[in-house]
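Figure S7 source data.
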Amino acid sequence: MKKVTYNGLTFKPYITRDRIQARIKELGAQITEEFNGRRPLFLVVLNGAFPFASDLFREIDTDAEISFVRLKSYEGTSTTGVVKQVLGLTENIEGRPVVIVEDIVDTGTTITNLIADLRQKNPADIKVATLLFKPNSLQHGSRPDYVGFEIPTKFIIGFGLDLDGLARNLPDIWVLDEEASSEA
Ligand code: IMP
Ligand code: MG
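Tokens for the predicted inosinic acid complex:
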């Protein structure tokens, strides 16, 4: 089986690009239906969500806008628990439906903090679309509204997800191979 290595850690194939694309089409159709004619603002959480957002946004078949915020809560493979809003929101979101676009919801810390910040700006509605969700890791907030794939509590990379900045460009998603990595 093909494997990839970053920073001495070995990863094996997990979710193929074809499955990812098929699932994004389904999510796009669902979000289109639910926001039809309401001109939602897609708020993309950088850096990780950019490939997902790029594909999802092109599946939205109703008038919509897109903007970006940048947050960071991870160092290496474990959360630091500290959420920093690096690049803020410039749009006026008052009275508008907002769809937050995330790569992955793990402990829920990042998304819960972002939602609390956004609520203060009085949007009409806030929904969360995430490509990946680790339900067993969730400590804050509730299940995201639109989930691509529910996965166990494992560390993954690719399709925007990184290990210390690397592997975001992989077109498929790969999971940490704990056996191979502990031998290294
Ligand atoms: P949370 O605040 O614990 O929900 O973590 C959310 C952020 O942690 C995501 O936006 C990712 O940047 C990062 N993250 C969580 N799990 C993984 C993973 O398995 N691989 C890479 N990054 C992850
Ligand atoms: Mg992220």
